[in-house]
Amino acid sequence: xxxxxxxxxxxxxxxxxxxxxxxxxxxxxxxxxxxxxxxxxxxxxxxxxxxxxxxxxxxxxxxxxxxxxxxxxxxxxxxxxxxxxxxxxxxxxxxxxxxxxxxxxxxxxxxxxxxxxxxxxxxxxxxxxxxxxxxxxxxxxxxxxxxxxxxxxxxxxxxxxxxxxxxxxxxxxxxxxxxxxxxxxxxxxxxxxxxxxxxxxxxxxxxxxxxxxxxxxxxxxxxxxxxxxxxxxxxxxxxxxxxxxxxxxxxxxxxxxxxxxxxxxxxxxxxxxxxxxxxxxxxxxxxxxxxxxxxxxxxxxxxxxxxxxxxxxxxxxxxxxxxxxxxxxxxxxxxxxxxxxxxxxxxxxxxxxxxxxxxxxxxxxxxxxxxxxxxxxxxxxxxxxxxxxxxxxxxxxxxxxxxxxxxxxxxxxxxxxxxxxxxxxxxxxxxxxxxxxxxxxxxxxxxxxxxxxxxxxxxxxxxxxxxxxxxxxxxxxxxxxxxxxxxxxxxxxxxxxxxxxxxxxxxxxxxxxxxxxxxxxxxxxxxxxxxxxxxxxxxxxxxxxxxxxxxxxxxxxxxxxxxxxxxxxxxxxxxxxxxxxxxxxxxxxxxxxxxxxxxxxxxxxxxxxxxxxxxxxxxxxxxxxxxxxxxxxxxxxxxxxxxxxxxxxxxxxxxxxxxxxxxxxxxxxxxxxxxxxxxxxxxxxxxxxx
Length: 690
Hints:
Elements: H1 12-18, H2 26-47, H3 50-53, E1 61-64, E2 70-75, E3 81-86, E4 99-100, E5 105-110, E6 125-131, E7 137-140, E8 148-149, E9 162-164, E10 187-193, H4 206-219, E11 224-228, E12 231-232, E13 245-249, H5 256-268, E14 272-277, E15 308-309, E16 314-315, H6 322-339, E17 343-346, H7 349-353, H8 368-371, H9 377-393, E18 398-401, E19 423-425, H10 428-439, H11 447-455, E20 463-465, H12 470-473, H13 480-485, H14 501-520, E21 524-528, H15 557-561, H16 567-584, E22 593-598, E23 603-608, E24 611-616, E25 623-630, E26 635-641, E27 658-660, E28 671-677, E29 681-689
Helix pairs in contact: 2-9, 4-5, 6-9, 14-16
Catalytic activity: Transfers a segment of a (1->4)-alpha-D-glucan chain to a primary hydroxy group in a similar glucan chain
Protein name: 1,4-alpha-glucan branching enzyme
EC number: 2.4.1.18
């Protein structure tokens, strides 16, 4: 039978029709996809197809056979000899050598014990020993390790992670209870981190997240969680971006079965679960990472300068190497098939495509930047191959690119000549909000520039909009709430405290910023854990510089749970905003039409999904009988107001008032309604009758 993952590039003409500016680069688009097709053909010829090629975890690593014998395999092309050692052989490094196979592969067969039991037990410690070309013996962890653990400080065994065999008895393996929920039409993402989800100053767990945090996310109206820092990383403060063991779920939160349960619980609540996957680079760690696994400086990475990321002090993959592609593609299959993740956010896509050749992040939008020699087309083709494989494997999978470059075709199907992502992050949006909050008062804001930033995205390429993510909250920066209200949050967030102009302004703008980003900025929306209720301060992981403190590496849920604090207002608005989107579906309804952006009035009006959005950012000026254009005649009524007392507002909008449209037209629209628009208020109107 033929491979069901056979790539076809048949609709490039459609791509060129969508964007005529691509026409001069048609030859390069076809060349790049020719390389992709060549890779597919090579994999078909040598590996029996992409379906089998992408399941390398079934070949490499440690495998228990039905007769309880064990087979171990590794890829170590630069090694002279390879051995397996551990508890099972009393740590005799050279007593169990692997047999050398072609193409840098090594294999070891361990027969069952005389009593029929397996020679290696569940949770026994093992290491791979490499003899390099100079005859030195080097201890390593298998790149395919499923479970690695850092010794406790009390053990005095150093800080390097240790590999433990994960082969629990059948009765101890988690069995899925719930089917995956349907793929959301409108993606509302809750970006989260298991470790900092704890309110206490410590590392949170998979079980705590499942039992305590998942219900919160569901209540807030999100339908997807994006989980960070799951792939094992030795340095906690790296936020998971310095991966050391690509196939191991981080043990600092619990064991693999507990992660499976967490995902299953999320599915039971109707939540899609995305993994933050880091295939753009890897940690430089040698003894408990991929670096120099076979005793050479290459193996999984480029040798020399091309294999080093100077800014991140990490290693860069060699995407032209056959076994590296197998390792990375199989890694995606592993998290999908073994843990039931529903998709991925690919970290560092811009860095993959440009930084590996020393190109910075400044992009002018000139198409020559995207189709010239400065692009790492090896990395580009890996991303295309990964997206093609994932969407063929599972049409319901979701992939998101962390890309700041704006590369055309990144979020178009591979069959059209695109790279195949479903979404890209709208990274310019949070940068714009932080820039405004840092550098200007809101009466100085350029309304047209705000609208431009929120709407400046590629046609037919979906964008995830967000006002802030984990990046903006890291130490050295602050959350939007803290930029708006700062130290006043320590003294005036009680509902019993004296009125504060700073808090009043902060609550109002926090709601407006999030709603306009949600409704105007993209085809999906993302919020980082805790920011929905205005979490104060910043994020800072335990490290030498802060005396290993967990004070800022946690989420203070007590703030939003306290009915006497004003955090509840922001939390309820966030919930109402998501529920309104669920009802009307603006994220999947096509882009908004902005009919009005008035600089001196500081007002913005737009229509989307049958709703009319009215924003007044003016700090002091309210307007009566303000005309708002709409193409839909009928009677309108407010369905969401940021000024509602439920959200900490001043109740200046009559939610029962009916607004009949006038057919004379306004602002290029065929009809208009007249409304009262108070200062620093956003109101959403729905047509309730024709």
